[in-house]
Predict the 3D structure of the following.
Amino acid sequence: MISVTDALTHLFALTNELPSETVPLGRANGRVLATAVSAKRDQPPFSASAMDGYGVASEGAAPGAKYAVIGEAAAGHAFDGIVGSREAVRIFTGAPVPEGVDRVIIQEDVVRDGDVITIADRLDKGFHIRPAGGDFQVGQTINAPRELRPSDVALMASMNIANVPVIRRPKVAILSTGDELVMPGEAPGPDQIIASNSFGLQAMLRDAGCEARLLPIARDTRASLEAAFDLVDDTDLLITIGGASVGDHDLVGDVAQNLGMQRSFYKIAMRPGKPLMAGTLANGAMMIGLPGNPVSALVCGHVFVLPVVRAMLGLGQAPTPRLIAKLAAPAPQNGPREHYMRAHVAHGELTTFDNQDSSLLSVLSDANALLVCPPNCPELAVGTEVQYLPI
Ligand code: AMP
Ligand code: MG
């Protein structure tokens, strides 16, 4: 058995960063920027009015000053002429500031009589002009790698970047194994259950930016497993679920190795999730074999699979970040394996659930955190600061 940290090191050694592809801007949200992109223009491209009002020369602008209104500038409609010292232009937000104007008097501070305005007693101090290039200038970059968010998409749009280089989505195939499994919606026999963690993992992987597909459920026979492995093409990562312990029907490791899988490790000192394996398939795809118990599989998804996916996406080789909370109730003493306990965190206070059986998905669904209990940790008192993974 190896530690969680060592297992992650081995996993990262098997992981290849994926190549990039170009997507239209409208598809870039949530993707990882592959190479830096740079602004193709200044924003704003001209100095622009920040308010609705009157554009004048700032020199001499004071209560009582009078101006002749000689024209109008609106967003998308510049005023072409030059504005003289006793002249004003009616101007609106977003309009280019005409030559001769360096201040916008907001309309509330002006009394207008025909084509003449007089600045009123209350005169706002602001100049209300957005300088050209005040947001960004041509050549300004957004650096990679970066997980693109809606605000980045808006910024790239403003920079006139219509196509975005992103890391290709990892292609993941998920294989459930077991004679007892049927698909949701099917009528299970009296000794059967519904395949569940494959769907949880697919959801988790899609959230993390993968293209994740489910292979047909493999039965606990060599022939069925071999047929399933045969379907694994055009895949960066194969995730098998179940069949990985030492029972008579646990054939996944054996079949995979007979088909040329180079095994990197098997078994980890953690709870839940001890029978985890990883390696490289003959066709070059990475394989992670997860334990079948629903909670074990999903916890291993958080602890091992998500960091691997992030590494494939060029986001670095790091464990899932941990947060800190205070125990709201004591946490039990731990044995020799690192324990990921289902827990609930609210307002920085964490409580573990009493029943930690690794088959209980209902408890996992109620949990929003996995408390990390280090090996051989003594019982921890209320108020102790602990580390957890948000889930
Ligand atoms: P195994 O690792 O194959 O011995 O499976 C351990 C436990 O997990 C057994 O109770 C299986 O029925 C269950 N199990 C295995 N695969 C799945 C799956 N895809 N969905 C739900 N339960 C599963
Ligand atoms: Mg099984």
